[in-house]
Amino acid sequence: MASSSEKSLAKKTISKDEWEARIMEVRISKTDLNKLIMNYLVIEGYKDAAEKFSLESGISPTIDLSSIENRMKIRNAVQCGNIDEAIERVNDLDPEILEVNRKLYFHLQQQKLIEFIRNGQINEAIEFAQEELAPRGEENPEFLEELERTMALLAFEDHSASPVGDLLDNTQRQKTASELNAAILTSQCQEKDPKLPMLLKMLTWAQEQLDEKVVYPKITNFLTGELDDVAAPIHL
Length: 236
What we know:
By secondary structure, the chain is mainly alpha-helical.
């Protein structure tokens, strides 16, 4: 059976210069790229950036940018840990959003519990978990598991040192805010997911497929988009 190194040697190797030349042959419309950026800014709720980009690029947004403002305020409230404010604003916007989406409402309440723990309000956290979240956990095993994971933060004096300390990261707030943002967009019959992240996933998949057949300068850092250098093939 061929070893992985033997399989690698059997692959065709494409140099960085050749790969870059092939990329340059691909023609992509600047207008399409600008629309992709505008799609991301609108869906993620970056109203000011979308307005500025519209002026610079000449691309008109697909919706009235004034409608983004409420979503931005709601999203910012979650990202700042002000969950009660976010819930109040959502209910003012459309009370059915949280009424019909029990999972989303649970995650908002879970985030509120996390904020109690983050702020050292342990008694409030325990009381809130018992009164608001435990009953929902009894009805749904998935909710119960997430509640137990959140309460595990209290087992450590330094909550951030807990095995579930990631719940205190800003990425957790961002995750909750994005879920809420998507629900609001869905209620308004708008796209809930920007196209750009999906394209990055497709790029990752395409590179994985190429890895099985070709040695080439792949993109490993999507922030810079730089290509890796390809080592010259070894001749035995």
